[in-house]
């Protein structure tokens, strides 16, 4: 059992924050492992994007600040995959939940470390076993997609 959720009691006015709140408990307890794709502008007005391991970020960030609207969840160079569209800067990093497979004919892939399943983030193909791709309409970001992976289930 986990403690109080960061989203509890917050008035969530945007679809993105509502989507994160709906997934918070399952990501905290390990039943779900979500990857958030965000594309937006950073503080230098440069277009940046990233694939973010939501469950991991929940352990490193104060999500109460995001859910209350005091801070915005933005891409970081330390996320699973980061791209600065203006400077053509790319980085990728494993997390406790995912291995990044970047040099692949299929494009960018993420391998869940708990069950070994592959998540394919290419919007034109099947995302993988036990994984769903959900585009989220939001007024807070340019582009938002959430990949939900149910951990540990056989296909």
From TrEMBL:
<keyword id="KW-0966">Cell projection</keyword>
<dbReference type="GO" id="GO:0005634">
    <property type="term" value="C:nucleus"/>
</dbReference>
<keyword id="KW-0539">Nucleus</keyword>
<comment type="function">
    <text>May be involved in spermatogenesis.</text>
</comment>
<keyword id="KW-0282">Flagellum</keyword>
<keyword id="KW-0969">Cilium</keyword>
<dbReference type="InterPro" id="IPR027887">
    <property type="entry name" value="DUF4464"/>
</dbReference>
<protein>
    <recommendedName>
        <fullName>Cilia- and flagella-associated protein 299</fullName>
    </recommendedName>
</protein>
<dbReference type="Pfam" id="PF14713">
    <property type="entry name" value="DUF4464"/>
</dbReference>
<dbReference type="GO" id="GO:0005737">
    <property type="term" value="C:cytoplasm"/>
</dbReference>
<keyword id="KW-0963">Cytoplasm</keyword>
